[in-house]
Amino acid sequence: MIKDLTSGNETKVMLRFAIPMIIGNLFQQLYNVADTIIVGQFIGAGALAAVGSSYTLMVFLTSIILGLCMGSGVVVSMFFGAGKKDKLKSSVFTSFWFIALITIIINVFALVFIDEILHFIQIPAEVLYDTKKYLQIIFYGIPATFIYNYFATMLRSIGNSVMPLIFLIISAVINIVLDIIFVVPLSMGISGAALATIIAQGFSAVSIAIYSFRKVPEIRLERKHLHFESSIVKLIANYSLLSSIQQSIMNFGILMIQGLVNSFGVSTMAAFAAAVKIDSFAYMPVQDFGNAFSTFIAQNKGAEKQQRIRNGIHSAIKIITISCITISILVVVFAKPLMSIFIKGNETEIIGIGVQYLYIEASFYCLIGYLFMFYGLYRGFGKGSMSIVLTIASLGTRVALAYVLSSVPSIGVLGIWWSIPIGWALADIIGYYKIKKDKII
């Protein structure tokens, strides 16, 4: 188990640290993917569309929480790399209660304004009931999402990426088993899928919190750490708020795309729901590598090892290029069988739309891989504002083009699909220009 990322071969250190994170988040994706597969196969296309729209909305709502956790993790990584143990522990106390308060506000907002939210994302009338019923249960899992991701981020920030993986694997298995039991023999429908998810989330949250406090001395707090230090509050706010804003902007753009997709009807919604799950699995490795890269950068910044940071950037580019080309080929070749996992083979229209989406997106996975690297780089350097610039460039382009192109009758939904890689490309150009200008590489 690696904790110190400031020594050893850069490529090997980053990969050994990132691989457990990648495996862990692949299992985390199983929470919603298990719902999607079981709902699509045993309930139908309407329920699949409802779960897909719910997933996009949940990602947006929790993106604020995840951004705050990621920003706090950078601060902890810097203190860990600099050997400042008391500062590290004080930052854990401060960030936990700060993010907990935000989580409560988000949870109350989601439950109170659920009808207004569903109207905003243009849920069609034929799936409105199922979507609302699913979300009313899922929203109660938001606190568990915060607790798991907070402690997982803290553990990863000090180089422990293995234990979050273990808890995720167990909870993902729980989720899948309960999904099958609730939906198939018990016939609980879409409510059963939602209930299975929040039970599994609750297990992972409680388990990782208990482990962190009992087994990890680096973040085990003493009485002297239970106070708010103004300098640490400012530092955490600087990193966390910018990360949160970046995550929120990114996922708000995706939510707007979901609303546009919804306007094309249930078949397009169902296809998009399945294809996005495949997308999420496909580029999840490079997304998590970007998060691991952020920890690598932050620790080496704290240790003031500039040349090691440069070497790490070059290694990261090679890793991402090879990984994305391999994944792109696999997704394009197996696009139709992958879609058939989520929806019955006789739903030819839905499968055709999903395959069309995957052919376009999968061909450009390298672009989003480099974008995740830039996010990790700037987050690790504490330049969260640059991540926001890249997100606005990517998402702004994507949303604007999607709405303009899809309004042309001869282009239609294809305009939504093509707008995505174009947005990635623009953000990559800006990110590369910036690191060359600042002579980071």
From TrEMBL:
InterPro entries: MATE_fam (IPR002528), MATE_MdtK (IPR050222), MdtK-like (IPR048279). It is found in: Cell membrane. The keyword Methyltransferase does not apply. Pfam families: MatE. The keyword Ribonucleoprotein does not apply. Its main location: membrane. It is a multi-pass membrane protein. CDD domains: MATE_yoeA_like. Signal peptide: none annotated. Keywords: Antiport, Cell membrane, Ion transport, Membrane, Transmembrane, Transmembrane helix, Transport. It comes from the Bacteria. The chain crosses the membrane at residues 30-51, 57-80, 92-114, 134-151, 163-184, 190-211, 315-335, 355-378, 385-405, 411-433. PANTHER family: FMN_FAD EXPORTER YEEO-RELATED, MULTIDRUG RESISTANCE PROTEIN NORM-RELATED. Belongs to the multi antimicrobial extrusion (MATE) (TC 2.A.66.1) family. Multidrug efflux pump. NCBIfam families: matE. This is Probable multidrug resistance protein NorM. It comes from Clostridium simiarum. The lineage of its organism: Bacteria, Bacillati, Bacillota, Clostridia, Eubacteriales.
